[in-house]
Structures are given as C-alpha cells and as structure tokens.
Model the fold of this input.
Amino acid sequence: MRVDAGLARLLGLSRTVAAALAEDGRVAVDGAVAGKSDRLVAGGWLEVELPDPERETVISGPAEVVAGLGILYEDDDIVVVDKPVGVAAHPSPGWTGPTVVGGLTALGVRVATSGAAERQGIVHRLDAGTTGVMVVAKSEQAYSELKRAFKERTVDKRYHAVVQGHPDPSRGTIDAPIDRHPRHDWRFAVVEGGRPSVTHYDTIEAFRSASLLDIRLETGRTHQIRVHFSAMRHPCVGDVTYGADPTLAKRVRLDRQWLHAHELGFAHPGDGRRVDFVSPYPADLARALELLQD
Done:
C-alpha cells in the first residue's frame, strides 16, 4: 500500500493530510524518509511525526431565514424539518450556504447544546443536494436518545430515489463496504476494507430509462445510496458526480441527484411512542418524475 493510503487507514487521517505529512519529511520507513507514493511493506518500522494539534476553532454559520425550510412537527424534545435543496445540515469548513441549524435559530427554535458547537442538536444529516425529512434534538435527553437510536439502527429511514436503468433484481439488498475514494477525497466509493454498509431497495415504478425505488438504509454512511447504486451502474438520475448521464439529467431538468428522504420513523425520545413523518416530493423532483413518465 502507498504511504499516503496506509497512513490514512492506520491513523484515521484524510489521504490529503497523510500525503502532506510525507511531503514535509515527517514519515520514515526503516529509518529512511519516505515519500507519499513509496510503498509500505509488512514488517517495516514506520515512524510518523505528527504536528502539534491546532487550537480548536468553532465553525459557526449565520442565523438566517432559510427559504423552503418547513417544520413538520415540534415539541419540547424534537423538531422535525422538511429540508430543501441547497441547504446543509450544519456549518462546516468551506460551506458558505444556508444551514438547517442557522434556519432554526432564525425561527427562534432552541436546540440541544450537546455535540460539537457547529452541530448542536444534529443527530443525522442529509447531503446539501438531498431533500427531505430530518429530526433535530431540542432537549439534551432527546439528543442522547436519538444518537443511541441511530447508532443501534432502530430508526426507520426511507428514501425514494430515481436511478438510471432497471436494477436486477427489482428488489434486493446491497451489502458493500464504503470508504473515501482512493483517488478523490471529495467522493466515496465501494472499497475493500471500508465501513460496512447495507442498503435495501424495492422498485416502485419502472420507466423507459429509469426506475423509482423505495430504499431503506440499515447503515448511514456518507453518500451511501449514491455510492451503492453508482457501483451497481444505476446512479441516481442527475447525480453526475457519481456517473449519471448528463444528457438525461438535462432532459428531466435536474441539476442535482433525484434522491429524497421520504419517511422517518422512530421512538419519541420523550415518552417512547412511535412517531412517523413523511415529506412530499419537492417541485423539481416531481417535475422530473412527470417527464420520465411521459
């Protein structure tokens, strides 16, 4: 394995950071300085000099009204939102657009203070380009209970996706490990030795060039649905990042993936009762679906 890939795997660093350590002369194998593309061989003595940790910086975003951010339900413990496209769950490095956290703050909704400062109240996330239902914790108890529920996989997360072609079989399970792409840090891929990832799917309707799927996630990896169906050669329509046909995307007037968090069900963290929430398709996805049906 290359030095940068091996360090990323061993130390939990991004491959870019691991490569930078090697380029700075901070990596040695059997006493000799190693470059990022040198190979690690079993039995070798690996030495890595890590830089002093940087002082923690708090990433914060503005409290601003987010157009299209709807509240499906709210009580003292939770707030369930309908997230529009182009909105991130919380502030992060390099993201300058609107966030769910900032939108809720602007609406006067107080969320739990547990978790990292920029992710307070956030117990799960949707990609900025993915729409649909999200739950945010308001009380500290709700934060703990929901984090546990997501970790123990007792939350029912159902997505609808339109993928290119017709998956065979029409109903099935994709069990394939996911990790960062070996060459592109900003993408993910099915990678041997990656994190276990399981996706269940069922075809709702088949069109001439695509299929509408009902998808249940057993795990919740970053970009999991997009990666799994891309690996099956059935990428989400409009998802050019993961290999979708740009001509088809243009025909159905999509500039993002056809992927929507349609339903979310869980035991209410306050009293344990079962609660379920549904988000209807937003206008751009509904229009694309109509064009595929014609």
Remarks:
- The chain has seven helices and 14 strands.
- The chain has a mean pLDDT of 91.
- Residues 121 and 137 are 5 Å apart (CA to CA).
- The two ends are 50 Å apart (CA to CA).
